[in-house]
């Protein structure tokens, strides 16, 4: 009977938990941010401006409470996993990259989205007392400045933002699977006449 040599380093339970939590939180963040642009916004665009602004504000307020802490958790975990890797390894580089790219949603939001966020928040304030079904409330608004047009621009920027934690998830996932050649499954190949039993 010939055995196949099996080589793998089994991470500790703590490392496995960190890997799962880091990947899950970064992937959840990417999906949550992205789903707003490709699921929620199309529905919001069907609403009259006052309702659209009110609903966007609720989504925005919930997102700013959840997204930054989740990005920080993912970043801290990926930083910890990078610390556990030798500095010359690809795992160290990939975890470090993930630890940087996931929380970059925060500067992305500040530098690329704050202008449109402020405009949409002002829309929510100015339309707060309008009837939620008033379809003519923005009839005199300049082109490009209606709640619908602003939200459409916002959705594109938001979709771009979702790629940051997605890229971090992929980098960290690659760091995890890159370490393993074959898991210790006790694989054995039988040869000769006795291979069938």
TrEMBL record:
GO terms for cellular component: membrane. It comes from Aureobasidium namibiae CBS 147.97. This is DUF1772-domain-containing protein. The keyword Membrane applies. The lineage of its organism: Eukaryota, Fungi, Dikarya, Ascomycota, Pezizomycotina. PANTHER family: ANTHRONE OXYGENASE ENCC, DUF1772-DOMAIN-CONTAINING PROTEIN. InterPro entries: Anthrone_oxy. The keyword Transmembrane helix applies. Keywords: Membrane, Transmembrane, Transmembrane helix. It is found in: Membrane. The chain crosses the membrane at residues 65-83, 95-116. It holds the Pfam family Anthrone_oxy. Belongs to the anthrone oxygenase family. It is a multi-pass membrane protein. It comes from the Eukaryota.
């Amino acid at each position: 009977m010939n055995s196949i040599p099996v080589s793998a380093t089994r991470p500790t339970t703590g490392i496995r938990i960190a890997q799962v939590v880091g990947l899950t939180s970064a992937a959840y963040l990417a999906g949550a941010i992205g789903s707003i642009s490709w699921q929620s916004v199309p529905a919001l665009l069907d609403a009259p401006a006052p309702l659209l602004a009110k609903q966007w504000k609720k989504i925005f307020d919930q997102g700013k409470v959840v997204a930054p802490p989740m990005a920080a958790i993912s970043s801290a975990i990926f930083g910890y996993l990078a610390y556990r890797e030798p500095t010359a390894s690809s795992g160290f580089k990939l975890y470090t990259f993930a630890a940087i790219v996931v929380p970059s949603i925060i500067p992305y939001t500040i530098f690329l989205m704050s202008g449109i966020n402020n405009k949409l928040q002002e829309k929510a304030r100015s339309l707060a007392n309008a009837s939620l079904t008033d379809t003519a409330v923005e009839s005199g608004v300049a082109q490009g400045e209606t709640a619908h047009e602003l939200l459409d621009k916002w959705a594109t920027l938001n979709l771009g933002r979702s790629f940051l934690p997605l890229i971090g998830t992929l980098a960290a996932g690659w760091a995890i699977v890159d370490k393993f050649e074959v898991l210790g499954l006790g694989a054995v190949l039988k040869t000769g006449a006795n291979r069938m039993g």
